[in-house]
Amino acid sequence: MPLGAYLVLAALVFAIGLFGVLTRRNAVGILLGIELMLNAVNINLVAFARFTGGLAGIVFTLFIIAITVAEVAVGLALVIVIFRVRRTVEADHLDLLRG
Amino acid sequence: MSVRVGSAALALLVLALPFASFLLLALVRPLRRSAVAAATVSITAMVAAVGSAFWLSWRSLPRALLQSPSTTWAWIPADGGPMATVGVMVDDKSMAMCMLVTFVSLMVQLYSWAYLHDEPRPSLGRYYAYHSLFAFSMLGLVLSPSFIQMFVFWELVGLCSYLLIGYWYDRPPAARAAVKAFWITKLGDLGFVAGIVMLWAAAGTFDFWELFRMANVGALPREGLALIMFLIYLGAVGKSAQFPLHIWLPDAMEGPTPVSALIHAATMVTAGVFLVTRAFPLFLLVPDVLTLIAWVGAFTALLAASMACVESDIKRVLAYSTVSQLGYMMAAAGAQAPGAGFNHLLTHGIFKALLFLGAGVVIHVFHTNDVFRMGGLRGQPLLWAPFVLATLALAGVPPLPGFFTKEAILGGVLEAHLTVPFVMLAVTAFLTAFYMFRVVFLAFFRGGLGDGHAHPHVPGLMSLVCWALTVLTIATGVAMARQVLTAGHHDGAPAWLPAFSLGLAGSGILLAWLTYQRQALDPARLSAALAPLDWAARRRYGIDAVFVGFYRFVLLAFSRLVGWLDRYIVDGVLNVVSACTLRAGDRLRRIQSGLAQDYLYGVALGVLVLFVLAQWRLR
């Protein structure tokens, strides 16, 4: 398969993730969208690593997976705290900083 | 040299004593609140100041003025030497003024203690504090070695007169009169300060002695000097109540009578004449301004004398007579005889103080200022003698001092070939005798109305002060008479002048006697014969009305215009700007929805735009 196919796949995944982030009202759904976007980037990096023969892309991917795990842990912890305080995780209702 | 330093130290002592008294009374509250202590402090300081002033002149007078009589210290530092200096200038003029100021102040302070005895204690303490400050300011003015120091004290004198005229500040007329005196004199001071600054720009110094030296050797630039000296003269016009700025002085009668005595005799109004006398070597360079001074002075003298003839308030008559005599002094300076004017200033200071203090006695007896409600004091020579003697001195009857100084002024004006001013001054001399004796006959000798006061009670202190000034007036007159008799008639003036001025005074007295004592002439017919003049003089020739009109229709209209501009144009622009800012902020506020996803939309859109831009640029 040519490189372009991987890139199109990554772009599709990224777009789906972004769409999720922008449209989901549930905070957990937004976090899932962010995961998709990050994995789209991972696909990109691995594809470039595979086609150019460097190791850098693979190393980056490993780092990103680790950071993603940490980010999800923190993000879910935040969601739980928000739920305890506000009794909701609907992003539409979390507008304390409205001007 | 030791004499010099000693003189300066003594002069500083004269200056420091009233100031110390003022500081003490101003800062130590219990001292001020108890009137006895305040009066004691103030009068003690004044006694010491009188002693120092007389000692100063006794030891310094014979010395010839070969070098600068000033002792100065640097004040405003600048590149290449100080820009201005402070110090004292001890010469014959300042020493004579020192003696006059300290002595009259002392007399007035003593007299005030009896006259204002019924005042509340704390406000009497305040009164004495003002008096000390007043004496200090005037002494500082006469001892000034430079224009700039003189100006500082000049303003202090104005402030003190404001404070004392408005002593009864809870009475609206007194408060108004104080403000009027302050602002009208400020009008003249504007010219004064502008003149000083322009003179400094032209000559590079404020120092009198240095300026006189430059004037002597012709180092002063003549160009623009006339304007400068005219502006400086404006200050004297305001202070010495020359036409048209004389309107504040009659209103200043709202203050206590001793204050009037002080202001008219020694401290406030003499400052203008003193300024012209002090700066005379500079005025000498601009003959046009001198002529103007003479004309304005003579006109002021005549105008004020005519207004005094129709006035029934005894203090206002005296006020107009002061304006009139100040016109005399200014006319003398304008006729290049400043010595005659200055001598008249000194003698006038003594007997005008006596006149006011004597008027205070009759006001004390009758509890009114109106001469038509007085009278019947013929049997009380102790009461009327000082006042009558001072009146004779003012009218110019020998051997009292007013005769000699007034005659010297008339001679000087005649010598300068100022015929019209001379005629005006001669008519003034006649009118002066008339209106002063009108007051004397109405207030003291007329029978009838006041007979109820057969045995009026007058405090001993008041009589004592009056008699002390009486003795001094006589002594001055006798000394001047002896000087004239031994030195002969002063050359230049025609021989008929003494007889002429005596005739003027005599005919004025005679007319007043016929009209108000013998009642051979009916005053109503007299005023009917001069109906238009009478009508105008009673309305003060409309000069006050001109000022009021100027204030109301020009100044207030201008202020309203400026106020309107400020309220609707300046404020309007600011209001529009602030309203726009508020509205824009309100609109922009809505962008901050507080929803994380909205911000993410923004970020995504921004990235998209950047992406498109990058693609477009690459192409």
Structural class, from helix and strand content of chain A?
mainly alpha
Helix-strand topology string of chain B: HHHEEHHHHHHHHHHHHHHHHHHHHHH
What would you report as the Rg of chain B, rounded to the nearest angstrom?
Answer: 31 Å
- Bin the helical content of chain B: over 70%
Count of helical regions of chain A? 3
Give me the count of strands of chain A: 0
Q: Kindly name the structural category of chain B.
A: mainly alpha
Q: Write down the overall mean pLDDT of chain B.
A: 84
Overall pLDDT confidence of chain A: 91
Distance between the ends of chain B: 98 Å
Helix fraction of chain A by DSSP (H/I, runs of at least 4): over 70%
Outline the secondary-structure elements.
The complex is a heterodimer of chains A (99) and B (619).
Chain A: H1 3-23, H2 27-52, H3 56-86
Chain B: H1 2-27, H2 29-33, H3 35-60, E1 70-76, E2 84-89, H4 92-115, H5 121-142, H6 147-165, H7 172-203, H8 208-216, H9 225-239, H10 248-251, H11 257-265, H12 270-278, H13 280-283, H14 287-308, H15 314-334, H16 338-366, H17 381-395, H18 401-415, H19 419-445, H20 460-487, H21 497-517, H22 523-529, H23 531-538, H24 543-589, H25 596-618
Antiparallel strand pairs in B: 1-2
Helix pairs in contact in B: 1-3, 1-5, 3-4, 3-5, 4-5, 4-11, 4-16, 4-20, 5-6, 6-7, 7-9, 9-12, 11-16, 12-15, 12-16, 14-15, 14-19, 15-16, 15-18, 15-19, 16-17, 16-18, 16-20, 17-19, 17-20, 18-20, 18-21, 19-21
